[in-house]
Predict the 3D structure of the following.
Amino acid sequence: MISGFDLHMHSVHSDGSCTVEELIAQARECGLTGIAITDHDSLGHLNDVRAVAAAEGFPVLAGTEASSWNPKTGRKIHVLAYGLVATPTGTSPLERIVDATLRTRTAASLWQAWVIARAGFEFHGHGLSLDDVAHVAAASTGVYKQHVMEALTGLPYRDPAYRFCYTSLFKNGGIAQSDIPYPDARDVVQAIRDQGGHPVLAHPGQMDSWDAVPELVEAGLEGIEVHHPDHDVEDVARARELADRFGLMRTGGSDYHGRYGAPESVGCCGVTEEEAGEAVAALFAAEPAPVSDEPTPER
């Protein structure tokens, strides 16, 4: 992209390998106008992201990507949230939801690591320990499968050996295959709105969450991710049609995770300033400033 926005990426605060500083540096190198760092299921990192962005003097939306599902179809739905601020007690509408998800995911990931270690599984002669996983995940708000794989293999997601190992352990009946419960996507969207944020449906083509759009709009959905690395031409057209039909802002992003994901760089996918329009510009204009003396939320 020559100019525009990458409004979906992840840092070391969740399951990305890059720091906020590194993401901003890459965005500058790509010539992006602004970015959004949308780490998973947490608001506790938002002030830190804003503080770094202010120090670096680069436009950044500090957001989150909330995990949820559609009870009618059983399919997962991810919702991006912009414009939120963590509360001192961690008891705001969305915080209550995502904190429960994060705790459950961390417990599940640690269980997966324990199962792998207990089985004596080795990758090229290297075993796994919970201490290794904790070290890799030290900067994150939770523990993810990406941290387990990094501790076990030391390879990037795009390496074929990584992919084979990952699939063998976590998919197709592997010893560490498991899933966790998720909140109703409608409740997530409503909680974001109740907290003063702006909910956007993430990669509907990737998760086949198209049929949930009307009900999510009723719950308060404000945008849809038109551009994503997993969207083909038909997905982009369908997302644009839904945006026009329901009056949703159009966004786009790389879903970049550094060495922990498939996209190779920040800015490999995004949305132009023209398509993003005034709605996205308003998000940047209204982005909260960092708070220097913000208390640590109770957990």
User: Anything to note?
Assistant: The chain has eleven helices and seven strands. The CA atoms of residues 237 and 254 lie 18 Å apart. The mean pLDDT is 96. The first strand starts at residue 5 and ends at 6.
